[in-house]
Design goal:
Blueprint (H helix, E strand, L loop, with lengths): L4 E12 L2 E7 L4 E6 L1 H11 L9 H11 L2 E12 L2 E11 L5 E8 L1 H11 L3 E4 H6 L4 H10 L11
Parallel strand pairs: 4-7
Antiparallel strand pairs: 1-2, 1-7, 2-3, 4-5, 5-6
Length: 157
């Protein structure tokens, strides 16, 4: 079943008292997904192409996919229930006979965003989720201008 989706990208990752706030959106709207510190730091490193001394978990996952002839096709943030986001990681793999296989996995949005950012894959949000989330563009703009940090819960949908 194909549902309508909206393409988004990571606009900012800012520290909070309990981890990181990942601002995801486009020119029309931006919303926040709260993630733990380690995944938030990984997303930030992938965004800025920060060299790492040793591979992080998401690097390892990406290297493993490459070794197996697979790649991240796209990520879809597909549901929002009780302030919890859900996502799907769409992977394509090709075997030695050039037979292509599409694999769809349930995953945390934070991990999906990290892998998509690391592998330069597109990120989408289902239209249903997009319509439900509150636009946080002004909050992000004010924080960027003032250098303040969001408190977890301050920018929740």
């Amino acid at each position: 079943m194909n549902k309508a989706v909206v393409e988004v990208h990571v606009r900012a990752v800012l520290p909070t008292s309990a981890g990181r706030a990942v601002f995801v959106g486009n020119d029309e709207k931006t919303f926040v997904i709260y993630v733990d510190e380690s995944v938030g730091a990984a997303i930030t490193m992938f965004m800025s192409s920060t060299p790492k001394e040793r591979p992080l978990t998401h690097d390892l996952m990406g290297h493993l996919m490459t070794a197996l002839g697979a790649r991240v096709e796209r990520v879809i943030i597909n549901d929002l229930k009780s302030a919890t986001y859900f996502a799907r990681l769409i992977i394509s793999a090709e075997n030695e006979l050039q037979q292509k296989k599409i694999i769809e996995l349930d995953a945390r949005p934070s991990d999906c965003i990290a892998l998509a950012t690391a592998r330069k894959a597109p990120i989408y949000v289902s239209q249903d989720v997009w319509d439900e989330v509150e636009d946080m563009s002004d909050v992000l703009k004010k924080m960027a201008e003032g250098g303040s940090q969001p408190e977890e819960g301050e920018a929740e949908p």
